[in-house]
Amino acid sequence: MKIIKVYREHMPALRLIGKRYTDADRKDEGGYAHKWKEWFDNNTANQFVGMKSLPGYEEVMIGCMRCDEDFEYWIGMFFPPETEVPEGMEYADIPKGDLGTCWIYGKESTGELYGPEVHSQCIRLLKEEGMAPTEKGWCFERYHSTRFTECDKKGNVILDYCVYLDE
Predict the structure, then answer these.
(1) Torsion-angle region of residue 96: left (phi > 0), alpha (psi -120 to 50) or beta?
(2) Distance between CA atoms of 37 and 116, rounded to whole angstroms?
């Protein structure tokens, strides 16, 4: 695994729609892979078919995290604010803000793209670039529809790891 790109980008206000999980839902060495498997096995994302997603986030699944008083892990997608929430789904409204983004290059199948070590490396690199990652705000894994789903000749993909920045 290596981080191949670090940059700043702006996010508009948005609505995260999906399912919220907590520490009680962790398995598999502390992760949520089993929840992703449930999503795909049950075709849960089909509930989003026909909905207008946030521009630039069409067909982009999100693994969104927030650590405030309790840790939250969401699986879902980003939509414009005020989007109606499908039955059985939950939502969180996230205000506009700037992100520090890292492109993490490696093999998805090994798990090397995920976890606290990767988060720490991204935070360190963002700070080296002069950004101020929030400590208690949102961060997310952006599963870009081509960078993440299409392996290169070495069998690697790119996972976008995004952290909201303090002012």
Answers:
(1) beta
(2) 21
State pLDDT tens for residues 134-158.
988 899 999 998 899 999 999 999 9
Q: Which domain holds residue 120?
A: 2-164
Count of beta carbons in the 10 Å neighbourhood of residue 71: 12
Between CA 142 and CA 4 the distance in angstroms is 15
C-alpha distances out from residue 90 to 1, 96, 146, Å: 33, 20, 27
**Predicted confidence (pLDDT) per residue in 51-104, tens digit:** 999 988 888 999 999 987 788 999 999 999 999 999 999 999 999 999 999 999
**Calpha distance 35→31 (Å, rounded):** 9
Helix (H, G, I), strand (E, B) or coil at 127: helix
Residues 30-34: contacts with CB under 8 Å, at least 24 apart = 31/111, 31/114, 31/115, 32/63, 32/73, 32/75
User: In whole angstroms, what separates CA 4 from the centre of its chain?
Assistant: 18
What is the Cα 151 distance to its own chain's centre?
19
CATH number for position 56: 3.20.80.10
Count how many domains the chain has: 1
Residue 33 has pLDDT above 90, yes or no: no
| Tokens representing residue 96 in the block | 């506009």
